[in-house]
């Protein structure tokens, strides 16, 4: 069985925002870079992630205003990470 390293498959050009950015800013960043999620950082430390699914289910489907909704209120927390090896 062949074992792959995370480093072989991961994206190294990660886009980040702050939790105080709006959901519209997250959506624009995803569109502009053709990505499906953005890492949310605080003092250069990851604190959450917001995905297209988060935006659809937690913002659009609940009809809250994405321009006035901060990322921190809808992002997924408790990030699970692994070593690149």
How would you characterize this protein structure?
With 85 residues, the protein is α+β, with helices and mostly antiparallel strands. The chain has helices at residues 6-9, 23-33, 52-60, and strands spanning 16-17, 37-42, 45-51. It has a 3-stranded mixed β-sheet. Strand 1, helix 2 (23-33) and strand 2 form a beta-alpha-beta unit. It starts with 5 loop residues before the first helix and ends in a 25-residue tail after the last helix.
Topology:
Layout: H1 6-9, E1 16-17, H2 23-33, E2 37-42, E3 45-51, H3 52-60
Parallel strand pairs: 1-2
Antiparallel strand pairs: 2-3
Mean pLDDT: 94
Q: Report the portion of residues in β strands.
A: 15-25%
By secondary-structure content and strand pairing, the structural class works out as alpha+beta
Query: How many extended strands?
Result: 3
Distance between the termini: 16 Å
Weakly predicted, low-confidence segments: none
Order of helices and strands: HEHEEH
User: What helical percentage do the residues reach?
Assistant: 25-40%
Q: How big is the Rg? A: 14 Å
Main sheet makeup = 3 strands, mixed
Order of strands across the main sheet: 1-2-3
Number of helices: 3
Which word captures the global form?
elongated
